[in-house]
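Anyone able to model this chain together with iron/sulfur cluster?
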Amino acid sequence: MSDETLLEVRDLSIDFGTPRGRLHALRNINLTVAKGRIMGLVGESGCGKSTLAYSLAALLAGNAVVAEGAILLNGEDVTKMSERQLRDMRGQRVAMIFQDPMTALNPVTTIGRQMLDIQYRDAGSKAEKRQRAAAMLERVGIPDAAAQLSAYPHQFSGGMRQRVCIAMALLTKPDLLIADEPTTALDATLEVQIIELLRELQQEIGCAIVFVSHHLGTVAELCDDVTVMYAGEVAEQGSVREVFRNPGHPYTQALLECDPARIKVATRQLPTISGTLPDLVDVPKGCIFANRCVHAWDRCRSENPARYPASGPHHFAACHLLDKETAA
Ligand code: SF4
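re: yes, here you go
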């Protein structure tokens, strides 16, 4: 792990206990996020991106089990931390922005109270903490910030509530910010504003961000690097430029072909990737994308593809087509 590495996920596998048996939600995930970089996690619903994001802050449901692997934050394994160590980590070193700002905020407590509570570890008087809270609200574009500290979440619009959540997450200046689809509940204009705000604040604070999204345009706009996930596995990884310009995995290619922003010809029907996600209780043998891949051949149904180099030194894709030695 280099000095610049903040987060390293190593061979991580996570199962969920279900009435049908163990559901293998994540399998052998590897990824690295350097200090101050923004990593996008993309893929369809159910691909495991939110499970991975929640696992980074040890916020998974009670039926989740880390079957294998490690999550190293500055070299410390999050999966082995005690409850007390996790409490110290959350809010101080790792902060999270959730998809729905209304359920992320406490509806019966004022914004000011919640912003004071989040600073409980910090030095300073109550008045100083209120001042810091108001300054942060102002920074995220909440007008008349000091007066708004007395307001309740329902008195804000969706976009304003998400700004409050961002302000709260960044108030403690975390090393790592995890943003789980923070713009999905917002309209397109607000989405652009929130992305710009996140980028500005990230540059000011210098934190790394893991940004979960199914919106490829947003990831291209905000992120430095991207991990494409499919059915609980990493399909492709690299810089945003490498992956979006020269996708090496058929799944990434299909996702990009389905992106409405890239469709040049007017159409009434948007393209989709045919087929459905495989059953993750009984994970099929071979490449996990084989039942939907237009290039699949015998090898794909019997052998799990390794991570093969793609268009650049840090660009990998898990597809036999990139195996220069033996590809059909
Ligand atoms: Fe498709 Fe085979 Fe590559 Fe899997 S390994 S993505 S099935 S070509």
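The domain at 5-93+174-327 is CATH 3.40.50.300 (Rossmann fold).
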